[in-house]
Amino acid sequence: MGLKKEGGMVLADCLDELSQQFEAADLFYGHGTDNAWDEAVYLVFSALGLAFDEDDSIMSRPVTRGELERIQALAKRRTDERLPVAYLVGEAWFAGLPFKVDSRVLIPRSPLAELIVEQFAGLVPAEPHKILDLCTGSGCIGIACAVAFPDARVDLADISEDALTLARENVLWHEVEERVRVIQADLFDGLGNAYDLIVTNPPYVSREEVDDLPEEYRHEPELGLVSNDDGLEIPLRILREAPQHLSEDGVLIMEVGYSWQALAARLPKVPFLWLEFANGGEGVCMLTARQLREAGSHLI
Ligand SMILES: C[S@@+](CC[C@H](N)C(=O)[O-])C[C@H]1O[C@@H](n2cnc3c(N)ncnc32)[C@H](O)[C@@H]1O
Ligand 1, from 135, 161, 284: best to mutate by most atoms within 8 Å of Cβ? Predict the structure, then answer.
């Protein structure tokens, strides 16, 4: 195990060898990359503190013996322990922004990033002034919303105090603390009302499915993944409780991933709009406050 060439190595050699090593180890990719080469770039660039948008000349940059040892140590943990790179380097990218991550939070990867970068174009009737990121984890969704809407006030809520401790660090890192609050809550308990936009990526995986996930997912907090009732318990609670917390023209955008078919089948009379993504991803629905209020009895 490990990179063989130690003398005169440049970045391109290092990435070649590392990606071959990852291929041979049959890793699972799903925490920010989807192939061995990108995974190697993510690890090496993060470990060496290089910007991902460097031009191609960076490929001939020499890699010192000390740097190589650091990379080898991280690569060994990636292959032996199946630790996702984001946890190894303590950082993940979401909506073009870096976030601190560790095993207290799920690694940011939601397709919601695409909607945030596009400022929810065509989905919200006007610029939202009050936004809630429910089940915030690292705070990535809410903080990215605060950056996308510089006049908005954003609440980040989660049941996990551990996750919120890290979310607070990310709020400070992005210097949005004057507009962003961090709140501990079991879903909507004790939260305010009249949010123009509620965005949420809640747990939606059934216990049986979690047990079948690749080893990489076992490093993530179970609280971030598992939802009872075939994954639907928490999404259903959100649909029932959201109307009391939305403004008149408010909008709920919720990710339920591959549980979307089960949710749509459970609630056939609810007019979900299932969104499409240019960059991949599925299972994100949108409902207006009005639709949720009208759906009332069908949400039981
Ligand atoms: C799928 S993770 C999403 C994290 C983050 N929003 C993201 O997209 O990376 C779900 C989050 O929901 C939180 N959570 C689980 N049950 C909850 C509950 N009853 N109320 C509030 N948050 C909850 C977990 O602690 C976890 O941080």
Answer: 135
Into how many domains does the chain fold? Answer: 2
- The range of the structural domain enclosing residue 27 comes to 11-89
Question: Which residue's alpha carbon is nearest to atom 12 within ligand 1?
Answer: 135
- Between CA 176 and CA 154 the distance in angstroms is 9
pTM of the model: 0.95
- Residue 59 reports pLDDT greater than 50: yes
Give the pairing of strands 273-274 and 284-288: antiparallel
- The reply to whether 217 and 76 lie within a common domain is no
Q: pLDDT tens digits, residue range 76-96?
A: 999 999 999 999 999 999 999
Asked whether residue 149 falls in the same domain as residue 271, the answer is yes
Give, to the nearest 10 degrees, the angle between helix 36-48 and helix 11-25.
130
CB 137 near ligand 1, within 6 Å: yes
Say how many Å lie between the CA of residue 186 and the centre of ligand 1: 10
Residue with the smallest CA separation from ligand 1 atom 4 is 137
Q: Residue 74: inside a domain, yes or no?
A: yes
